[in-house]
Amino acid sequence: MATEYIPTIGVEIHVQLKTKSKMFSSAPATYGLSPNSETMPLDLAFPGTMPVVNKEAVAFAIKVCEALHMDIARTLRFDRKNYFYPDLTKGYQITQQFDPIGKGGEVEITLDSGEKKTIHVEQAHLEEDTAKQLHLADISFLNYNRAGVPLLEIVSLPDMHSGEEAMKYVEAIREIVTYLGVSDGKMEDGSMRCDTNISIAPKGSDKLGTKCECKNLNTIQNIRLAVDYEVKRQAKLLDCGEPVIQETRRFDEGKKETVMMRKKTNAIDYKYFREPNIVPIDLDSGFLYDSIHSMNKLPSAYRKELHEDGLNDYQVESLLRERDDVLYFEDCLKLGAKNPVTLWDFLMVDIKAWLNKNEKTLSDLRFQKENLVELLTLLGNGKINSKQAKEVLSEMLEKGSLPGDVVKEKGMEQISDSSLIDALVKDVLGKNGQSVLDWQQGHDHALGYLVGQVMKTSHGKANPSMAKEKILAAIGKCGSKKN
Amino acid sequence: MTKWMNKSIAELHAALVKKEVTSLELVEDAISGVQGDTCNSFEALCFEEARKEAGKITEVKEEEYLKGIPYVAKDNFSTAGIETTASSKILEGYVPFFDATVVSKLRRAGMILIGKSTMDELAMGGTGTTGHKGNTLNPYNPERIIGGSSCGSAAAVSQGIVPMALGSDTGDSVRKPASNAGLVGFKATWGRISRYGLFPFAPSLDAVGYFTRNVLDSAYVLSAIAGHDKNDMSSSSRKNEKYQNYVLQKKTLKKVGYFKAVMDSISNPRIKKAYLEVLDGLKKKGYEVLSYDYPVELLDALYPTYMIISCAESTSNNANLDGIKFGPAAKNSPRTWQEYMTEARTAGFTDLIKRRFVIGSFSLLSENQEEMFCRAQKARRLIVNELNKFFDQIDYLIVPAAYSIPKKISELSTKWSTKPDFLDNILTIGNFGGNPSLTLPLLFEEGMPIGLNITGRPFEDGYVFSLASAVEEITGLKGLVKEEK
Amino acid sequence: MIKVTKDVIDTCAKSLMFRLSPGQDDLIYEEFNTVLAQIDFLKSIKGVDEADPMTFPYSEHQKILREDKPSKPIDVAVALKNSNTKLGNNVKLPKVVGNANDEVDE
């Protein structure tokens, strides 16, 4: 019988904080401009320059730690991680090895099966980013713009046991940091970076297996693929009686495989010791309070509210993918939109489709949220039907027209007068006796045809639900006259 | 021979106010002094800039104590537009584009920088003989050391070339050369003066210090350069003071103490006599003089504790010196980044520095750190706790700054000392506790100056000046200059 | 603790990115004897291992953090003026292969 292995996975995430200036220097943190144009003396490690801690980076870190339910340090201490590399100008990185700003947190993930799981976070600490290198044929260029940008490193406990769990965990962290507004959280551009540690052990074993590190994961999906591949690879080795060798691997996107980067033989000794140029900083309780109470609403809070509004899981999750979308949605509700499900439909299907096609974003919309709410109200009151509403929306998107104006121009006012509908129904039923019989014989498609005929006769203006009601009242249940 | 530069800051200031002399004349005087230097005291010079600055000064007001007066800065202070090398090959050609905060403050106070002074390489030495320009000599006897690491600054002031020179003090690097050169050498409380722009040696011990030829001058200088700096996160937010008032108004504390172990170990009878005479003189002035039993084993711990902590921190601080962003480029066509850095650092550091770095680095390795670096930090805790117990009962610690005349250059060794004498290392105690500490002349022995050291509680810099002033009155030794005749 | 050998000394030097001059490793080996003896002495001091390691000379903490206002960055020409290994606005090195954690090549 094949051995069953239990994978154990830990994840380290580096989140780039989008402060205006760097972690320890006041240079602008908006790198990406021309090389070496966004530096201050500390970033090039000129002798005698000294680190000064960025208040906003600390505030951002506090928010993330609070969102992860961590114990937040009341006194900040920093340490040096010493090693040589061209992108590390001082020859050491200032980090928090001994006293991370956050300890002992957790985040809930929801698996595809619907099962909820809690992943524990060991610690979160502040540190600084390195310079960027550009490698040419036989030289490398150093660009110090990125050197010193604030990073928050979040380290999980080895709580995950599958590629799916690891991926969901990273998604949950990404959600939190983007919703808090502290990071762009994009793996593709490096504003969020992931390293995973993966080991497997036979089921029932109380010892963990040898772990391999997997780096260079550029998308969230690749996390799942890489972990799953790695687990399989290690299982194959063990099944053949071969040991898993501790090494660092990278994910090859083309082959969808993990590939060895280097063997982890002698790990570098970083000689960590306390940074003597930064006297311990007592965090003011007012500052802590303000940081925590100015936090943006988190996805978990939105989820609860949106489910209460009547949206299903799929609708909730797709809405939460971009914070701008859920904010827009929330604002429309606040402005009086009465039917959240319909609002979702209009926003996430029709408006999104148009935005994607025209490569625009919500901020480019030519109409105000109030106008969309107006449109939804017209639909909700039965003044127009949904087909008409979509037509109006199309005009709003293309030209920015006001919904009231479009309805008037196109004479779209829906017929909801009961006696008028009665007349139309009577007319249609009279002319379509066979369909009525079909319905009564049990063919359920006939109803749709009859409603369609009422719509056609009324040039699309009849209130379709009223028409359907009246038709059913007249012809009875489907299959009532079945032999 | 200078006409003016052998005078005190106070005298020069008075002359400037009364328009008896112009700043430009003072600068020219200093320049001729520099050109007559016999001790190898100088690195890069900035005569033209100094003349320009001095030329702009038309009047000096009564309260502008330092305005128009020339000074020199140790070559580990960043000075914009002026080469700064820390007397090491690895920084030859490095020209900072910003001033150290201390240099900016002195500039704002109107003091005129005329050049940089030699030092022990990267501040890691106490002899004045390890800088890239060779030995800096003691004007009192060129065969003997002036000490270090602030050797050039001490030599410049004691030759009467300038009345003030900046230095830095990590283990005694201002206060020991001050003793060897008959000067007032002051190390402020850790965090009292900004270290921004000062090349770091061991930041948990480093302090800005400086030389003058009398105590009152020293107090005026502190008033100009002390204060919080937003660029230095180790600088104190405590309010700055007018330190000269402690001297002028004789604001002093009353209890003076000495270590019994030190007193009992002084072998030179003349030094002991002079020391006791000062203590007696203080008694006559109304001070209480007390003996304190500071444990000998903690005194013996001073040297290893200092060496391990400073070498370890220094190794890390100098990891930025790789020939990439500044400093001479690597030679021998390196093919990899490792080769590049290795070439630059091999050529740039001397053997002594490399030895210190290896030992410092070894003590930080994770397998060794608990035994070596952390233990030294624990020993530091015991040393400072005991010092604080002393200061719970007594206001000042007075010890001789040296116990014999400066060594001969020919008899020097830079090896890690096998039998360190705690007397030679007593001044490090003021670095461990971040205390304000001042050396001033005590006596002459075989024609060589020997100093006395006063240490106070952190942030009681003013009280240290007032006691020092009282000692000055007792010894009568101030304004000492050793000029070439 | 790691036992001190010439190899260990050479590895330390290598990890510090410099070569020792001939004979210096002997000298350092000798110095280590002194250093380790002095460490043993520190070990013998009463109360030393129970004490808290001390980094800062006194225990005054601070409360001031830097406001997140970016300064005008330094001009690239000024930033790179002191570099003697550059090309245009970039600092240049022989091609950097591998990552920070790579072993220094034998």
List keywords for this structure.
heterotrimer, A: 483 residues, alpha+beta, Arc Repressor Mutant, subunit A, 3 domains, nine-stranded mixed β-sheet, elongated, B: 485 residues, alpha/beta, Amidase signature (AS) enzymes, 2 domains, eleven-stranded mixed β-sheet, two-stranded antiparallel ribbon, 39% helix
Structural write-up:
Chain A is of the alpha+beta class. Chain A has three domains: 5-282, no CATH class; 299-409, no CATH class; 418-475, Arc Repressor Mutant, subunit A (Orthogonal Bundle), CATH 1.10.10. In chain A, 39% of the residues lie in helices and 19% in strands. Chain A has 15 helices and 16 strands. Chain A has helices spanning 55-67, 163-179, 220-239, 285-293, 299-308, 313-320, 323-334, 340-357, 369-380, 386-399, 403-409, 418-431, 433-441, 445-457, 464-475; strands at residues 5-16, 71-72, 75-76, 79-82, 92-95, 102-110, 116-128, 132-135, 139-143, 150-156, 192-202, 212-215, 247-252, 257-263, 273-274, 281-282. In chain A, α5 runs antiparallel to α6 and α13 runs antiparallel to α14. Chain B is an alpha/beta fold. In chain B, the strands form two sheets. Chain B has an eleven-stranded mixed sheet, with helices on both faces. In chain B, strands 4-5 form a two-stranded antiparallel ribbon. The relative contact order of chain B is 0.14. Chain C contains three helices and two strands; from the N terminus they run αααββ. The relative contact order of chain C is 0.07. In chain C, β1 and β2 (90-94) form a beta hairpin. Chain C has helices at residues 6-15, 24-44, 76-80; strands at 86-87, 90-94. The model of chain C has no long low-confidence stretch (mean pLDDT 91). Chain C has a two-stranded antiparallel sheet. Chain C is mainly alpha-helical and 106 residues long. The radius of gyration of chain C is 23 Å and the shape is flat. At the B-C interface, α11, α12, α13 and α14 of B face α1, α2 and β2 of C.
Summarize the structure.
Chain B has two domains: 9-248 and 437-451, Amidase signature (AS) domain (Amidase signature (AS) enzymes, Alpha-Beta Complex); 296-380, no CATH class. Helix content of chain B is 39%, strand content 14%. Chain B has helices spanning 9-17, 23-35, 47-55, 101-108, 151-158, 175-180, 215-225, 244-248, 260-265, 269-284, 296-317, 337-348, 351-364, 366-393, 422-425, 429-432, 461-475, and strands at residues 42-45, 70-74, 112-117, 137-138, 141-145, 165-169, 184-187, 207-212, 255-259, 288-292, 396-400, 437-445, 448-455.
